[in-house]
Design a protein that fits this description.
This protein has helices spanning 40-46, 66-77, 88-107, 117-145, 162-169, 186-189, 195-202, 213-227, 254-260, 264-276, 295-308, 330-350, 367-376, 392-398, 416-419, 431-442, 446-462, 465-488; strands spanning 11-19, 22-28, 31-36, 51-58, 81-84, 151-155, 174-178, 207-210, 230-231, 235-238, 241-247, 281-288, 316-323, 358-361, 379-382, 406-410, 424-426. Helix 11 runs parallel beside helix 12 (330-350) and helix 14 (392-398) crosses helix 17. The protein has 18 helices and 17 strands. The structure holds 6-O-phosphono-alpha-D-glucopyranose. 6-O-phosphono-alpha-D-glucopyranose binds at residues 19, 156, 180-181, 325-326.
């Protein structure tokens, strides 16, 4: 990362993602209130001091009028953000439809929508058209702001068509693409009617990155089996052009969490929580309310644990924070009612007049409350059915320096590859196994917990989000230099 000479101007980095890291609320005709949300990607880029980064993405709101668009563009410019304006129909077909109802479940091994097959197939084509149209709109904004030498880093499954749109207009643009979800086995990917178009477009990028080696391998197999291309140890070769494919596991800004624990308000919060749950072990789940997170399965495993271990019934509590997400998609609405029903049933079954075994919260917590919660947790229960990485597991570890609690982690989360040795790995579909792991975690001796925690803490504090971003961007620059050398030879 030290590659840049201090005297040279910083290299510009255009980060393109479906969502800007900002929530925008309209205050009036031409005024907006903006709030920055510091997710993994934002903190990663804040740490990239040697690059001059700006964001391009959808602001997450419908702004049909020019006055509103101009005002929002101006307000966002101060945060180094550039909006892409998507109309309501495009959002419906591209974001709710193709991204979240088709690619998202498929890439997480949940299949394609099954009901009403014929109409699904028909709407599939119009959703794919909207997806391509939306990707082209992102590309247009990138081209408008592009300056020679810029690096363009495209993110996630929303923008698989973007590398192609960018290179078609200007083959000199340096393009990287990173997938934050799993890339599934080629046998799953080949179910997609648009399987070839998406692969070919991603291959237009110079560097393609995934969280794990397995996802990278699946991608290369899909290109060899579905497109008939040549896979090499470096990536995929297509008509003499090599697209480099590699694994870049993301991390978190661990210092931010560790520092937060020292703040007086977080300490107060920790004290309150300890008093509130005195005499009980605290188990914690923090997830977006998404099918891939395996929340119903997790709660059923907790029920099985309580059923089999009556001595624990008034000594343990499960706090499940389920942050609502993609609420316009019917599958997500169904999931929400399903979870409420199961929680209600279990609390009715095992609750007393003074306490319930499950506290289920349908909202997000602010950063400080979340840190306090992580710090008082005895057992974190992360049982995703599939998950690209899962950074909640990293955040939990970062906040556990004094408690040294146990991490129960799904073997289907990317994080299982990095934190596996410091966690109890489970198959979330096996409810009995998860229930047994809960028992094992609650009864684990302190020295064993300490050893597992140390392993994880070391990993989380050394493999940070900043390091991830710096490595990806420097690999992208190197890949391009190597390609230029190859063509000169
Ligand atoms: C996953 C995706 C992200 C996405 C996030 C929240 O982590 O990989 O790209 O931003 O979920 O989902 P949303 O649909 O609300 O942006």
């Amino acid at each position: 990362h030290e590659r840049q000479d201090q005297r040279l101007p910083k290299q510009r980095l255009l980060v393109v993602a479906n969502r800007l890291p900002v929530s925008a609320v309209r205050q009036g005709k031409d005024s907006w209130q903006l709030e920055i949300s510091v997710g993994g990607l934002v903190s990663a880029l804040l740490g990239l001091k040697e690059f001059d980064a700006r964001w391009i993405g959808w602001a997450g709101v419908n702004v049909p009028d020019e006055i509103g668009q101009e005002a929002l563009t101006k307000a966002l410019a101060e945060k180094k953000c550039i909006p892409v304006f998507l109309d309501e129909d495009t959002v419906h077909q591209y974001y709710n439809g193709y991204c979240n109802n088709i690619i998202w479940p498929l890439f997480h091994y949940l299949g394609l929508p099954q009901e009403d097959r014929l109409s699904t197939t028909r709407s599939f084509q119009s959703q794919f058209d909207a997806y391509k149209k939306a990707n082209q709109m992102f590309a247009d904004v990138v081209h408008e702001h592009y300056e020679e030498g810029d690096v363009v880093w495209c993110h996630d499954y929303h923008l698989m068509f973007l590398p192609k749109c960018l290179k078609e207009k200007n083959s000199n643009i340096k393009v990287g693409w990173f997938l934050h979800t799993p890339f599934p086995s080629s046998e799953i990917h080949r179910m997609l009617p648009s399987r070839r178009d998406l692969l070919e477009s991603v291959l237009a990028a110079d560097l393609v990155g995934f969280h794990t080696y397995d996802y990278a391998r699946h991608f290369v197999s899909a290109c060899t089996r579905i497109l008939g291309l040549e896979g090499t140890p470096e990536g995929v070769e297509n008509q003499g052009k090599l697209t480099r494919v590699a694994a870049f596991p993301i991390g978190i800004d661990s210092d931010r969490f560790i520092r937060a624990l020292e703040l007086p308000q977080v300490q107060d919060h920790i004290k309150e929580l300890k008093e509130r749950f005195a005499g009980r072990k605290v188990m914690l789940g923090v997830d977006r309310l998404d099918m891939i997170k395996g929340i119903p399965q997790k709660i059923l495993a907790f029920e099985e644990f309580l059923e089999e271990n009556p001595e624990w019934r008034d000594k343990v509590v499960l706090l499940q924070i389920a942050v609502p997400t993609r609420t316009d998609v019917p599958e997500y609405q169904k999931l929400s009612s399903q979870v409420h029903e199961i929680v209600g049933r279990i609390n009715g079954r095992f609750g007393t007049l003074t306490a319930v075994p499950i506290h289920h919260l349908d909202r997000s917590l602010d950063f400080h409350a979340l840190c306090a919660l992580y710090a008082v947790t005895d057992v974190a229960l992360i049982t995703s059915l599939r998950d690209g990485m899962n950074l909640v597991s990293y955040e939990f570890v970062a906040c556990q320096a004094s408690k040294k609690g146990v991490l129960i982690l799904s073997e289907f989360a990317g994080a299982a590859q990095s934190l596996g040795a410091g966690a109890l790995l489970v198959n979330p579909w096996n409810i009995a196994e998860v229930a047994a792991s809960i028992s094992q975690a609650l009864n684990m001796p302190a020295d064993e917990r300490e050893k597992m925690h140390q392993h994880n803490f070391m990993h989380v504090t050394t493999h940070t989000s900043q390091e991830w971003a710096a490595t990806f961007v420097s690999e992208l620059n190197d890949t391009i230099i190597e390609a230029q050398l190859r063509t000169r030879q």
